[in-house]
Amino acid sequence: MADVIQLLPDHVANQIAAGEVVQRPASVVKELLENAIDAEADRIQLIIKDSGKTLVQVIDNGKGMSVTDARLCFERHATSKIRTAEDLFALHTKGFRGEALASIAAVAQVELSSKQEDSELGTLLRIEGSKVLSQTPEVVSKGTSIAVRRLFYNIPARRQFLKSDPVEYRHIVDEFHRVALAHPQVSFRLIHNDVENFNLPVSNLRQRIVNIFGGKTNEKLLPLKEETDLVTIDGFIGKPDYAKRSKSEQYFFVNHRYIRNPYLHHALMAAYEGLIKEGTFPQYFIFLKVDPASIDINIHPTKTEIKFENEQALYAILRASVKHSLGQYSLSPMLDFEKDPTLELSYSETKEKPRMPHIEVDRNFNPFRQEQKSFSGASKKTASWESLYVGIESKSNTKPFDLVEIEDFQEEKTMDLGVETSEQPKAETFQLRRKYILSQLKSGLLLIHQHRAHYRIRYEEILTKMSDTQIASQQIIFPINPAFTHAEISMLSEIKEHLEQAGFQFSKFGFEGLEIQGIPAYLQPEAVEDLLKKVLAALEMELPDSYFSGLDLIAKSIAKSSAVRTGQNLGCDEQAQLLDKLFACKEPQLSPDGKPVYISLDWEDIENKF
User: What range does the domain containing 224 cover?
Assistant: First the structure.
């Protein structure tokens, strides 16, 4: 039988390695930025075209490379960082595997120019699909410039799996943020399609965070600092009041390397337990400094996962330090205008001297004394179970629901359901606890969750209008200028067309800011910014690319924000109309989030309870 195992050609092996290291343009950005940091550059420029699909270029003023090093850096397993296996556990640099540039060169057209400080000439190298096309002397400035063009040009199937330009650019910005946050002592620029989107000067960590995420971030931060024999913790955490609905702006760094670690994230969330609302997440920018020998960073091709030698101790230290920071810095005195101001004064500030409290005692009270009871019925007291009915007037025409606390406010109209009310209600309905609507059926009782019911109604109305035409927009007197980061604006740009179809009108839309002049007719102006934040949180989870999913996401957000809330009063007509509209929906049983809208109780089930 013939042999079937054979060695792969180098260019095929490089393409396979590229599948692990280079997943999208952001992967190229990460590798090139980290190489520039390793070259001890203090000024780095990132140039992007078409979200990295056409060009990713990094220019730095680092040490540069010799002619030989420029050629060897594109060979597999060629690295200047390690010599022996033991060096893997004493790493202080970013790249060390020696596969990144070789993988990138296998799936793109690469041009490298580099010059060392003590050299008169630099070198210019061109590679395409792992093949060296040319290497010539060139007059270039000190440092290195690497331009990666037409990523995946020779693997069309991989290129087809790339997402839309806004999605790919957002991933690039995420990688840019991670490297820039880890190295505030380095200045960074990001230019996309000839427009400068970021210009970050040399600064300290707090200034770098503010420069990236906006001026309002400064007031949200609490310092975090702890030093032990095992780990040194430094950085900032967000105040509980500013917790967000999404997991953005959460960063862990170990020895200045960005990592993902669910275990450490759980430690931080445990410290916030009871301080933030369910479903929200705090900001954090945490730097851990540990002995390189106590971690293994060679367990994942992208080097974003780290194995710690003593995770349990790290968990406890991190949780305790975050709790300490929250307790030390986040508590501040609050004004309560409902309190009597004299109660807040100390004894030294009042004219009266402290007096011993006087307690009055009823000495004749005996808890064991029992009154004589007669079982004849004539002298039976009403002190036992009959006392439950004291104060309730007996009526001959009492209906079963007269003993239930019914909140039926016909005169007070607090919610416009888009219907004309009549003098007589269509059906006998009752509002319970300002949350549920109770209605009688032939077979029993129906209990409807008023918010979820209206959420379903609004959702189907909005989705239908958005799919067919466009929702009416209301002009507002004072334009709304919500504050969002570049990454968030990039996300909103993915669905800008859908937002306009939903009734939003923008007079300004770009990285310089947003200005909204028109909003959907369903919305109140004060709810706009919160609604857009909910859309952003959903975008991070779903990343919609298709037309329908984008519309669906916005329809859900607008419907939920404009639906009647728990605690709102509904009159009889409003209750009846809500039921009519609900059962005219395509899916009345479930809310758009998949939660039950109503439950039914059969008379037989009710009878069995007795």
Answer: 206-328
Domain count along the chain: 3
Beta 122-128 vs 505-510: how paired, if at all?
A: unpaired
Residue type at 437?
A: I
Say yes or no: 52 and 101 in one domain: yes
Average pLDDT over residues 97-103: 72
What integer pLDDT is reported at residue 150 of this predicted model? 93
Pure H helices in 199-334:
205-213, 262-271, 311-329
Q: Is the pLDDT of residue 531 over 70?
A: yes
> How confident is the model over 9-22, as a mean pLDDT?
66
Which amino acid type is present at position 280? T
Neighbouring-strand partners of residue 198: 190
Contacts of 189 (CB under 8 A, 6+ apart): 44, 45, 46, 196, 198, 199, 200
Place of tokens 């728990």: 566
Q: Which of 41, 40, 45, 49 is nearest to 200 (CA)?
A: 45
The region of weakest confidence among 372-376, 506-510, 524-528, 599-603 is: 372-376
What percent of the chain lies above the pLDDT cut of 90?
Answer: 35
Which DSSP letter does residue 401 get? G
Q: Rounded mean pLDDT of 37-47?
A: 94
Contact between 420 and 554 under an 8 Å Cβ cutoff? The reply is no
Q: What ranges make up the beta strands (E) of 412-504? A: 429-432, 436-440, 444-449, 473-480
CB atoms within 10 A of CB 44: 26
pLDDT at 147: 96
User: Mean pLDDT over all residues of the chain?
Assistant: 80
Whether residue 387 is contained in a domain is answered as no
Last residue of some domain: 280, 303, 328? 328
Q: Rounded CA gap, 368 and 79, in Å?
A: 89
Q: Distance between CA atoms of 128 and 19, rounded to whole angstroms?
A: 17
Q: Are residues 452 and 591 in the same domain?
A: yes
E strand or H helix that includes residue 19: helix 10-21
- CA–CA distance from 325 to each of 71, 235, 250, 271 (Å)? 50, 11, 17, 10
Select from 300, 301, 231, 229 the least CA-distant residue to 267.
231
Judge whether 434 lies within some domain. Answer: yes
Q: What is the pLDDT of residues 286-344, one digit of tens each?
A: 999 998 888 877 666 666 778 888 889 999 999 999 999 998 875 544 444 444 444 44
Q: Three-state SS for 250? A: strand
Nearest to 480 by CA among 527, 539, 550: 527
* DSSP SS3 for 473: strand
Higher pLDDT, 427 or 452: 452
